[in-house]
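Hey,
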Amino acid sequence: MKNFNDIYEKIYQDSFVQLEHERKKTKNQIFSFSFVAIMIGLILGIITNNIFFIFIFVPAIIVFFILSGKDVTYKKMYKEKIIRVFVKEYSPTLEFLPNSGISKPTYYSGEFEKFDRYFTEDLITGTLENGYKINMAEVKTQKESRDEEGHVTYTTIFHGLFSEIELENYMPAEIKIRKNTISLFDSKDKVEMDSSEFEKIFNVYGTNKITTMQLLTADVMEMFINFKEKNKIVPELTIKNNKLYIRYATGSIFEATFLKNALDFDTLLKYYNVINFTLDLTEKLIRNIKEADL
């Protein structure tokens, strides 16, 4: 895998000028339209003496304009020239498929939460250097609720990057790492770890304590702590059967925004760190599995 600076430099040289031109054009179009909509709203509001035109009509028109696809060209270019190249430069064994995702049953197998609605896109798929298959994609889950009058509302439970990695052997135990919040699992499965710093951030659950300790060694816990401190993202993990599931509550990912530089350094670095941590952690866990002869 290439380091981040090399990947960034490659993309910058090949695509920055074209992408930045398209971004600025999109931003100017949206800002110009917004200005016109605001002026129309003000005029209609004054003529009719109705604030509806200022506080409801104008924002609605602006949002409609943005969501109607005026920035769709830039978004497509961004994924094609930035994200696709970014993934391929990171590793030639990986491929970016923006119109594909990870299946609902696959995500559900990770046993993270119950949900009513499921959305997914922006699949990264391929194999690691040791031949293990990996899939990762943006996932969004929502819970449905109804009030007494039957009105339906949806609340987002999770929105971020989810990955599935196939392991060579079936595991003799299930292991879950979750954010240190209210326990959702039977307390008898909770495993006390040797790192007080780790336990401030994470809860660990395992159906076999010995196996859990063999896999979640001191250096693995240190990886989790360092990633959280560096990126302000708390990764969660499930090891079950012959699969490793990891997710990150990043919110929307791999999406262009006309408000930022086309090659915003911090944004691309976050993508790199998340992907890199996923692969580094997988390699380390696989080594621990082999050393423990599981």
